[in-house]
Design brief:
The protein is of the alpha/beta class. The strands form two sheets. The protein has a six-stranded mixed beta sheet. A hairpin with a 2-residue loop joins β4 and β5. α3 crosses α4, α3 packs parallel to α5 and α5 runs parallel beside α6. The longest helix is centred in the last third of the chain and has 18 residues. The chain starts with a strand and ends with a strand.
Length: 223
């Protein structure tokens, strides 16, 4: 399997009036195509910081972030944005849907930004939403959807541009147990069907145990 994401010695320290706070102290990780990896750590240990570095949303203080063989560390912002748009899908704990747009429009917009025609984007959006059981809800605004439905739309949006890498930060952490189980099962099925590399942060040991591998963030390093 090809190496989709490689982290080598990633370091990140936050600096403030109270002093320096080292969060990542040399994190190393490889996630290959077709592999789903669980990222486990207590709150405040740096899971989001690690995911933001891996997703090129933040520049680490040191180390390398390699996406599909390309070291993103020295790239200009425009090139990093292009990698995020074309290669990476990101799912957050809170869905962050655009409230004034329908479920379908939320999935269509990132595709059109990437250059896909409205018709092609809508066709793919409907297919993705149908895969998540939302065929009858495509025209609903987020405020008219349940929490689980909103998160399904957010996952469909993350997959809309055909990413090679999916990063998810507690994607079911804001849902009740039954809904979280259903959404997570659908997420795993889609990721496996498409052969994506996925790094999914979760507090839930049962969900983590259903992934291919578990890594723990401890003292700023992955073990």
């Amino acid at each position: 399997m090809s190496e989709t994401l490689v982290l080598r010695g990633v370091r990140r320290t936050y600096r403030g009036d109270a002093g320096d706070l080292p969060v990542l102290r040399g994190a190393d990780l490889t996630v290959r195509a077709g592999e789903i990896v669980a990222l486990v750590a207590p709150s405040g240990a740096g899971k989001s910081t690690l995911l933001h570095a891996a997703g090129l949303l933040d520049r680490p203080d040191g180390g390398a972030v390699v996406i599909e063989g390309r070291d993103a560390g020295g790239l200009a912002d425009a090139a990093r944005t292009a990698i995020r748009r074309d290669t990476i899908g990101f799912v957050y704990q809170f869905h962050h849907l655009l409230p004034e747009f329908s479920a379908l429009e939320n999935v269509v917009l990132p595709q059109m930004i990437a250059g896909r025609s409205r018709r092609a984007a809508a066709d793919r959006g409907r297919a993705l939403l149908s895969a998540f059981g939302l065929a009858e809800r495509t025209g609903h605004l987020p405020g008219k959807l349940s929490g689980g439905e909103q998160q399904r739309v957010a996952i469909a949006r993350a997959l809309a541009n055909g990413p090679k890498l999916l990063l998810a930060d507690e994607p079911t952490g804001n849902l009740d147990v039954a809904t979280a189980e259903a959404v997570f099962a659908e997420l795993l099925a889609i990721v496996r069907d498409h052969g994506l590399a996925a790094l999914i942060a979760t507090h839930n040991p049962e969900l983590a145990g259903r992934m291919d591998r578990v890594v723990t963030l401890r003292d700023g390093r992955l073990v």
